[in-house]
User: What shape does this take?
Amino acid sequence: MSISLMTAAWKSPLPSGQKFVLIALCDNANDQGECYPSIATIAYKCSMGERTVQGHITALEALGILRREMRRGRSTNYRIYSAHFDAPAES
Assistant: This one.
């Protein structure tokens, strides 16, 4: 868990769904912003459907807040970029 990433995520101006998913990712991340939880794990932590989580992840990726790397036969690797947390949120 990266406390510095979680603190920055709490302060971000993101809409609530995106922020909650980001915080769940930060809860799994190391200090370099890398994590690899499954969509099911994130959905469980956020009490959201998997498709809803996927939509929020796509939005976070479009804002430059995170990058995902698909790994065949393994879980997706996420990289969180806290420098982009202050990006204006899309409605």
Observations:
- Residues 18 and 56 are 5 Å apart (CA to CA).
- The chain has one domain: 3-84.
